[in-house]
Structure formats: structure tokens, C-alpha cells
Amino acid sequence: MPFLGQDWRSPGWSWTKTEHGWKRIVFYGHELEDNNREIDLKELCSGNNENLFVGDVCELATTKRKKDFYNNNTKSQFVFRDKWIYVQKGSTKERHGYCTLGEALNRLDFSSAIQDLRRFNYVAKLFQLIARSQLTSLSGAAQKNYFNILEKIVRKVLEDHYNPRLVKELLQDLSSTLNNLTVHVGRCVLVGNVNIWLCRLETILKWQQQLNNLQIPKQMCDGMSFNDLPLYMQNKILYKLSDAYDIINLGQATPTLHILSENRTLWKRLCHFHFSDKQFCRNLVLTKSDNVDWKLMYFTLQKHYPMKEQYGDTLHFCKHCSILFWKDRHLALLFKDCGHPCTANDPDSCLMPISPQHFIDLFKF
């Protein structure tokens, strides 16, 4: 007997019991997450001069109103909140087809991931890589979902003032890609009406202006501040930073922090963290006294080699099950939950953290 249902490794559908039997739940739009904001038929038909109809005519008018309501208020066709997906790279007897980058973008719960500070930088970097090279490979629904999540990313930065520099770089790359596609390459590579893309370009420009005008208010705190810490503790915090621009920006806060941020040992450790010894030998930068200028060395190496990426939390891939998923550390510690229905004897040995670039490479066939 042929297998006609979904693959047994997929998360499955959500169902609800009604008077007429079981009905599959389909979510429409990111704003309809709480019971989809149901529209009452009587509420639409009463108190409105347009709906002076009876019987079937009233139902048709109400259906049209509902359709207009959903079109105006929904921003994505479907909302999935899957914690894991099966990465299908070819057809099998049980399942035909393969998983695409757009499908993974739609089904994995990136909207909730950006609310977690450990995953925010990871999602933002992934969206930056998609903006640079993979935007045209997404389906129309995936592109729509991409911009919906991007809007949430910008909104979080404006509200929480978290890492605006990374999002500025993301919007700059996205704007350059769209300008290149609409002007130089041609509109045929874009899915949808060109007016939609022009509106998206205007929206990106508005976001860039909002981020450029972002003013981070001074925190009024009666307790201990960063400047009240001993110098060795301030220096130890600087050594924990892996981003050179964070060190430079922190050094502009006070004269003391400026001196600490110019420490040669700090920049030497930063170079050793991101680059290898062979790369040092090819790009030595010496001062007049024949000492290595580690700060200048860092920015010289940055132009030629990729830096080491570091994220608080990432997606994981199970090599045994071919499943891509978000790993919940709390569940893993409390209940020894590996994050997906794994059949391996030792699930942890099969897990592999996925960088943003590796995530994109997974869907290159």
C-alpha cells in the first residue's frame, strides 16, 4: 500500500474538534496569532448602509468584506511555528521533492527567535546573507515572510536599542541588492509587481532614516555604574568583547575606557581569536620601532580574511535524522530533550551547530 500522508519525521498539522468532526487549523497572518481575531457576521452586517442585503447576497458581501480584511491586515499567507524541519535533499519512496531555503524560512520560527537576545544576531546575520545573494531564490510567500520578520527586527532595535549597527548593515546590503535588481539586472528576476518592490525600497529607506535618527537615552541609575567598577574589572570586560567596533565605541565613552581600549595586548588577543598564525605572517604591520601594530593589523587582516563568528545560540542540524531545529537549552538540561524526535542512541553526538552561511549551503542542490 503506498504511503500517501506526510513524512513521519515532519511535525504534523494542528487539529481542533468541531460539531462536524475534526478540522485542520490554518493560521493566516502574523497578527492573527491569537485566535485570528474572528469577524462576527452580525457585526459586519449591522449598522452599515452598504450591507442592506438579505439572504445569500448578505453572505456574499460579508465574504468579500472578510477577504478585504485579511488582505489588508495579513502580512504572510501562512504562519508556521515549527521548532524543527526535515531537510529533504532528494526524492524517496516515502516522500517526493526537496526542502528549499524559502520553505525553511517560512516554517522555522524566526519571529520568536529574534525576541531572544542569544539568537538575535544569528537571525540578523542570516538575513544579511540572504539579502546579498539569495533573495531571488525565495518564493513569493518566502519573500513576503522575509520582509515581515525584517520589520520585526527593525522594530525591536527601535524599541530596545539592541545592536543597531548590525541592522544598519543588513538594510544597506538589502537596499543595494534591490537597487541592482530593479535597475541593472532587470525586473524579471523579482517575484511580484514592480510597484510592490518600489514600496519595499521606500520602506527600507524609512527604516534607515529611523535608525540613523535613533537616540539612545542616558540611563538614570542610582546604583553602581560601569565607571564605578575597578579598572581591572573594566579591562576584563573589554577582553570578553569579540567585535572591534564594540571596543572602539566603548572606548569613546570616557577617557579611562579610551586608554583601556588602546591596549596592545587587547588587540593582540583579538587578532589571535579571529585569525591564524599563517595569516599574520603574510600581513605583518610594524610601527616605527619595529613593534607590531596589533590594532592596525586587525583591520588589515579583516579586509583579506573572514572573521570568526560567535553567536549566543544557533540552529542545530542532526546528521542522523537530517533535521534542522532550534535547541532549547532549558529543556535539554531539565528533561534531556535533544530538541527533535531523534532515533539515535546518542543524539548529542549527532548534533552540529549551523552557522548562517552553512544554513544557506544546506539548501544548495
From TrEMBL:
Pathway noted in the entry: Protein modification; protein ubiquitination
Main location class: nucleus
Localisation: Nucleus
Domain of life: Eukaryota
GO BP: protein ubiquitination
InterPro entries: F-box-like_dom_sf, FBX25/32
Keywords: Nucleus, Ubl conjugation pathway
Keyword Nucleus: yes
GO CC aspect terms: cytoplasm; nucleus; SCF ubiquitin ligase complex
Role noted for this protein: Substrate-recognition component of the SCF (SKP1-CUL1-F-box protein)-type E3 ubiquitin ligase complex. May play a role in accumulation of expanded polyglutamine (polyQ) protein huntingtin (HTT).
Protein name per its UniProtKB record: F-box only protein 25
Naturally occurring in which organism (per UniProt): Seriola lalandi dorsalis
